[in-house]
# Entry
Amino acid sequence: MGRLIVVSNRVNPPADAGVETAGGLAMALAAALREYSGTWFGWSGETVETFTGQISMQRIGGVTVALMDLEEQDREEYYDGYANRTLWPLFHSRTDLAAYERSFDAGYQRVNRRFAETLAPLIGPDDLVWIHDYYLIPLGQELRRLGVANRIGFFLHIPWPGPRTLTTLPQHRRLVESLLAYDLVGFQSNDALTAFGEYVERELDLKVQDGIIAFGDRETRAGAFPIGIEGEAFARLTQAPAARAAFERMRQSQAGRRMIIGVDRLDYSKGLEERFLAYEQMLADHQDLAEQVFLLQIATPSRDAVEAYQEIRARLDAISGRVNGAYATVDWVPIRYVNRSHRRDELAGLYRAAHVGLVTPLRDGMNLVAKEYVAAQDPEDPGVLVLSRYAGAAEQMTDALIVNPFSREEMSEALARALAMPREERRKRWRRLMDGVLRDDVAAWRDRFVAALAGDLATVTNTGGDSRKAS
Ligand code: ADQ
# Structure
């Protein structure tokens, strides 16, 4: 096999070898790139007046990085537009928020062509090409048009919508057909894989046989490859000085109260409003819990340029203000709502200090926070994970308390149950969850995908998921 070429919209290899600040995905991809002496290609995040297709090559943390600039119009139509105002809401089943504008579609096609034209000369004859996420769905097909015959794989980090939802997109057929230019298409969950198969059979009238779809003169293999975290490294991180300091500070400020934690990008898919309202319901239903518990919600603003994000921010400010206004006492604030970003070691300490991890997206490809929360727990006295059934992670993490994030009552009851759960049950559930987090870690995910892309077919059929039923 030749080199591995990873392509994503933004490129972020960790600058140093530590996991204190870098995310697990960046670390895992960087490690693979070092092993295969590969290249990571993508947009620099910068814009220039006129697109040049010039590549700036750099070495960051032992990884070769190739970056290109885009035009301002590209940012507007491709990044803010088609990717984040059309595909993101649509794939998270929010057709009410999805904008179908012709200029966005044109910008998306144009930028994917620009990626292809700039990338193609970098690809050697035996290289494997691995393309990431919804920004770049048509890139494989654009590369094929330029004569690239290498094995090319695509991994979707976000959910795949049901066929009826997807058909609201004017270009649905073209988009899905472009996926059939890949040798391998990977999804986070069996749920996403099934929805993709349903679309292909229903709308394209093609057969999916043993995960293979024949279209024209090509065969595309589709599989579920649930992503993981660096489980062991994250557990170790709880012992780092900044993690311990965050843990101690939190425990002191808790004053014996139990803490529920939520950590999310500030995004409407994460179910934050519903979460605040369910917590409010719990305070109303369980008055004995007043002053005994608080919710720490860390939500970092992202994509502020998009209007829907400004709206959700305003709504969350209003709900947290209302709940705190109604319930707070002179020395108790029921919701601590924090908008800043945290280092990973600090986060590890905060997770460990929390008695409940509340991860309740309305829709999520996987959700790594659920896995990080589990990895950060004290094995002797672990907290309880409350997890939405609509996170991809719920397929694997069946020992969490699985909830419907649209039901306030159900979430309120699950929270009360989690807060009261005896240590023995917490330990049993945590042990099984942690075994899964360690086994299906990010290196296992990456190696399964790369092996499948290189042609090892056995790795496609075993999804690595846990088939045990929820308890
Ligand atoms: P995201 O939607 O970003 O990822 P998630 O999987 O939860 O969602 O990953 C978020 C990451 O950012 C976690 O590592 C978390 O620790 C970190 N993070 C979040 N808020 C933070 C904060 N305030 N400070 C510091 N760090 C913070 C997309 C898909 C997911 C999929 C991942 C990976 O939407 O479904 O799991 O990609 O494939």
